[in-house]
């Protein structure tokens, strides 16, 4: 994918706050726990969106600053969590003060961030021995109608996009550690359709193409008489630590 296409897809989230929040999943507790260093207090969340990951940070009693370039996504987050400090900015240039955070977390968003500029900014914002962790939820569709449903709208997995340019990232951090976990959720069939409308390939498609995909998805569900869907997910977390 070209960098222009990446930017177009990243910017697609500018208009989708409420729908996004309603249908996207949160993050499993073991992954969130692993993403954070012991004793963390001040946490910066980059690409925070509507706050799906923020919820889990607040439940742990952390003080969260949430950064995202989309006013529409941040409006949902701010309405749900008025005490969180929100900053409308790109992760590459947040305008926040040096060495202000014990940890940075990035849910489903690091692949939208320029790796060199984003890493340099993250290193500036972290305190010594601070950590940055990137989390990705990946759908694991079952063989059969779920795989056919997924194939209507191919969506490169975030963790694969980042692997592709990882070599240029020049993280000013230590070695990468990785954690993986698996989980599932069961949702109404219509929510399953709507989930796919929150993805960047849908958001940037023409209205005609969007209507075609919706019709194909609904006919697949009808053909298989599905009214609730159990969705399997694999969550990957990458964690890096600044030197002391
Ligand atoms: C897939 S959403 C993830 C939102 C949230 N973290 C979650 O897990 O639900 C990706 C988010 O990255 C944001 N984004 C896109 N480009 C960005 C950038 N350069 N810096 C920070 N965030 C960015 C989008 O506005 C969007 O809110």
What does this structure look like?
- There is one protein chain.
- The protein is α/β, with parallel strands linked by helices.
- The chain has one domain: Vaccinia Virus protein VP39 (Rossmann fold, 3-Layer(aba) Sandwich), CATH 3.40.50.150.
- The protein has a seven-stranded mixed beta sheet.
- Helix 6 links the parallel strand 4 and strand 5.
- The longest helix has 17 residues.
- It is globular.
- Bound molecules: S-adenosylmethionine (SAM).
- The site of S-adenosylmethionine has 21 residues, from helix 4.
- The site of S-adenosylmethionine (SAM) has 21 residues, from helix 4.
**Beta-strand residue percentage:** 25-35%
Named CATH topology: Rossmann fold
CATH architecture: 3-Layer(aba) Sandwich
SS-derived structural category? alpha/beta
**Spatial strand order of the main sheet:** 3-2-1-4-5-7-6
Question: In this structure, how is the largest beta sheet organized?
Answer: 7 strands, mixed
The number of helices is 11
* The CATH homologous superfamily: Vaccinia Virus protein VP39
